[in-house]
Amino acid sequence: MDYNYFFSIIIPIYNKGAYLDRCLTSILQQTYNNFEVIMIDDGSNDNSSKIANKFIKQDTRFSYYYHKNQGVSHSRNTGIKYSKGEYLLFIDADDSINPTYLFNIWQHITEFPSYPIYVFSLTKIFSNGSKERLSIPYKGSKEINILKENFITEQEKNGIYGFVCNKVINKKFIIKNRIYFDTTQKIAEDLSFFIKCYSILKNIYFFEEYGYNYYQNIIGSALQNRNVDYCSLTNIYIEIYKWLGNDINQLEKEKLINKIKNLICSSFSEMQKIKMNKINQYISYYSTEPTIKSILKSNQNSDNLILYLLNKKYNITLFYYLSIRKVYIYVKLWIIRSWRKC
Prior knowledge:
By secondary structure, this protein is α/β, with parallel strands linked by helices. 50% of the residues lie in helices and 17% in strands. It has 15 helices and twelve strands. The chain has helices at residues 17-28, 48-58, 72-82, 101-111, 144-149, 151-158, 171-177, 189-198, 222-225, 230-244, 250-269, 276-288, 290-297, 305-312, 315-341, and strands spanning 5-13, 35-41, 62-66, 85-90, 96-97, 117-120, 122-125, 131-134, 140-143, 167-170, 203-207, 212-215. β2 (35-41), α2 and β3 form a beta-alpha-beta unit. The radius of gyration is 22 Å and the shape is globular. It starts with a strand and ends with a helix.
């Protein structure tokens, strides 16, 4: 496989015109120049295309593709398809990178080559201008089994293993193993993608690099605009459960099981509209998926009412409980707001 560039930088875009110029300018200012930029527009209806075209005219390393809205996973897969670089980097259109970012990453890869994936740090930037450095749990080469030992603790702490923007991926690795972003996942797509990678990897390399600026509280971000699909999140953590197997201690296993239970409960308690057909659908799935079934079976005497009703398959009772619970929460909030106005 021949490569035209060392890095392919893939940028999914969806109505990010307010931030795109900042992002692309930061890439144009890099001290290292053996890279291409692939912009995948997922059906934007703002001025994103105008900004993208400005940079295409400035630099032939920039390319732009437009398709109808199909989600960020589809955009990333499209970027991989068109990429001509040896290593893949993903940058969100509302983030930016420091001038030496690519050079520093290139140095680490050339000094310690042959790793399919490199994991590094990043810097969170908040709306008030404050910054927080997100640290990495290890430094240097680590066997994948080392990650397993504290995977849940580290992932729950800061999401380090699920971020797509703090990793460099060897393109040969994902092409050979046919690993792509799951277009059916509408949340935590990146975590799902990397679980597939981790399940194949033998070694991974960590290094410190804080040059990625991960802006928080961005207007129009996906997290602001979508309801959380707890069922999809549950599926991802079931995959993590299967991957980790018996390679974790009891404390980590309990954390993971509790996470799965909480997600199952949330899929019911956080419903926007309490619908009987949706409850039946969830109960049917949770009662038949082998791993979930096993976890729930060991939890039959739970003092959590949702899990208890789910175990007993009391669908109608669960429907009425959730309906009453929602009314209770609404009334409680109304009373609190009324008191505050007094």
